[in-house]
Design a protein that fits this description.
The complex is a heterodimer of chains A (246) and B (289). With 246 residues, chain A is of the alpha/beta class. Chain A has one domain (39-64, 80-242): Rossmann fold. Chain A contains eleven helices and ten strands. In chain A, strand 7, helix 8 and strand 8 (198-203) form a beta-alpha-beta unit. In chain A, helix 4 (105-112) packs parallel to helix 7 (149-161). In chain B, strand 1 (131-134) and strand 2 form a beta hairpin. With 289 residues, chain B is mainly alpha-helical. In chain B, strands 1-2 form a two-stranded antiparallel sheet. Chain B contains eleven helices and two strands. Chain B has one domain: ABC transporter involved in vitamin B12 uptake, BtuC (Orthogonal Bundle), CATH 1.10.3470. Chain B is globular. Classes of the chains: A alpha/beta (246), B mainly alpha (289).
């Protein structure tokens, strides 16, 4: 945590202002403003239905916001198709992992490396992923759907790394995993950040993600209810009562 | 009725069935990936048949050569049909997709009627009258070649989906749509490619079919139905299933013609359909949902 904070630059990588997202008449995000500094770890916490996944999908271009602006390295990305946003270096490890179940581990990784920004060094990237997750190398030709939950999460992270991202958005990466695997996932996230990848972490595991975060936002019914450094929010009475059960 | 005769008829049915299989493969690939049922599939088949007739009559182009330009033109047509017309309907309810493609089908039939009239057209190449003699079996040369091209095309398609990155990316879209968006695949482009590939399959099947039967505009709806039956018998979403289904339908049609009368052939293929739906609802090679 301390070293992550120390290495965090001051440059703004992602700037969100006045973001509004609707599903039909139902408002999912209301006037969200948020800032992600280069090489930082930003945690977004909140209850189910608070809008965390909607926020990630809006940034990724999978859902189109009704109003507001999202700027990545200073240029507007609202309205770009999702593949163009990935091409800018915004990767995502989605909720539920979203691997390709009937395809092999190697084919899943290949799909992550199809971006133009990643193609020239796709072979090297796959070697890096196998070094990071040796279990995946053992299962190169196995259908991804037959992997354990933890291995699938590793595959989802590896597949995202294949795209050579500068920013990775993790959506509930610990959901449904055994405690030992959850620790492993958090360890990997920290290691990736140490390599210089900026992290946006959406989690139900509030305590663990606030400890990791350089900056954190609490979402309630689509709005930012609280924001501050991870340490500030960990010490905040409202957070402790509502999310940590203290 | 001698066994020679039965064997000859069954082999002819099997070979024709491979061409049916390729036609159905196009439908199956489009449905499996884009999740849109191409209700204009048989109509596209008849357009390909007319194209082969025109290229033969106008330019003396043998159907086995005409396959290349017709398939290329159909690929481009399919790509833009998906990109321009069907993509905007992807998120709409299924009945409005259905109406869209039925409308496309009706337009196609009527344009064919206006241009060519209702009369049957065909083409005559010399090898249509020749046959291979294997022992006491007589097999039409044209039918053997047509089946060979159909199998070759299907094989090339399997290879494309198995070994090329673009083929794998298309499979990825079918496997997990959200996953494909998350990794940054250009799903709309891949959908259009898929529709183009399915259309090219139909084009090849049409160029081969015109060697075996005469073409009229009204064949379109019949072929659409035939392609559905084939895909359901073989198993939705299974590529080998489409070919196996085609072979079974081809052989059952041939048997119907022999045992009862050629006009009873649909009766047999629908009978087969009901049997499969009763005993194995997911189709012969389909996976359980």
């Amino acid at each position: 945590m301390a070293d992550a904070a120390a290495s965090a630059g001051n440059r703004t990588l992602l700037q969100i202002e006045g973001l509004n997202l609707f599903y039909g008449d139902a408002q999912a995000l209301a006037n969200i403003s948020m800032q992600v500094l280069d090489k930082g770890i930003v945690a977004v916490v909140g209850a189910n239905g608070a809008g965390k996944t909607s926020l990630i999908r809006a940034i990724a271009g999978i859902e189109r916001p009704r109003a507001g602006s999202i700027r990545f390295k200073g240029s507007e990305i609202v309205g770009l198709p999702s593949h163009a946003i990935c091409e800018l270096g915004i990767g995502q490890v989605a909720e539920g992992r979203q691997i390709f179940p009937t395809m092999s581990v190697a084919e899943n990784l290949e799909m992550g490396g199809l971006l133009k920004r990643a193609r020239p060094r796709a072979a090297q990237a796959m070697e890096d992923v196998f070094t990071l997750f040796p279990r995946l190398r053992e299962r190169t030709h196995q259908a991804a759907g037959t992997l354990s939950g933890g291995e699938q999460q590793m595959l989802a992270i590896g597949r995202c790394l294949m795209g050579n991202p500068e920013l990775i958005m993790f959506d509930e990466p610990s959901l449904g995993l055994a405690p030992a695997v959850v620790q492993e996932v958090f360890r990997v996230i920290k290691a990736l950040n140490a390599r210089g990848i900026t992290i946006v972490l959406v989690e139900q595991n509030v305590a663990a993600s606030l400890r990791l975060a350089t900056r954190a936002y609490v979402l309630e019914t689509g709005e930012v209810a609280l924001e501050g450094s991870g340490a500030e929010l960990l010490a905040d009475d409202r957070v402790r009562k509502a999310y940590l059960g203290l | 009725m001698t066994w020679d005769l039965v064997a000859n008829v069954l082999i002819a049915g099997l070979l024709t069935g491979m061409v049916y299989g390729l036609m159905a493969l196009g439908l199956s690939v489009i449905f499996g990936v884009v999740r849109v049922v191409n209700f204009a599939h048989g109509e596209m088949m008849t357009i390909a048949m007319y194209a082969a007739v025109i290229l033969f009559v106008g330019f003396r182009l043998d159907p086995f050569l005409a396959v290349l330009p017709v398939a290329a033109a159909f690929f481009v047509f399919g790509y833009w049909l998906q990109k321009g017309l069907i993509n905007p309907f992807i998120t709409r309810p299924e009945h409005s997709q259905f109406m869209l493609l039925v409308a496309v089908a009706i337009i196609m039939v009527n344009v064919l009627l206006m241009v060519f009239g209702p009369d049957a057209r065909n083409l005559q190449v010399d090898y249509q009258l020749e046959s291979f003699e294997i022992g006491r079996l007589l097999v039409d040369k044209a039918r053997v070649y047509a089946a060979g091209v159909a199998l070759l095309t299907a094989g090339a398609l399997f290879g494309f989906f198995r070994f090329t990155l673009t083929g794998k990316a298309i499979r990825a879209c079918a496997d997990n749509h959200l996953g494909a968006l998350v990794v940054g695949l250009n799903v709309k482009h891949l959908y259009a490619l898929t529709f183009g590939i399915g259309s090219a399959c139909v084009a090849v099947a049409g160029c081969m079919m015109v060697l075996l039967v005469d073409v009229t505009p009204n064949l379109g709806p019949a072929y659409t139905l035939l392609a559905f039956i084939t895909v359901i018998v073989g198993g939705m979403g299974s590529m080998p299933g489409a070919i196996v289904g085609g072979i079974l339908i081809g052989m059952s049609e041939a048997l119907a013609g022999l045992l009862i009368s050629p006009s009873a052939k649909s009766m047999f293929s629908f009978g087969l359909l009901i049997l499969v739906l009763l005993l194995r609802p997911q189709g012969l090679l389909g996976k359980k949902p």
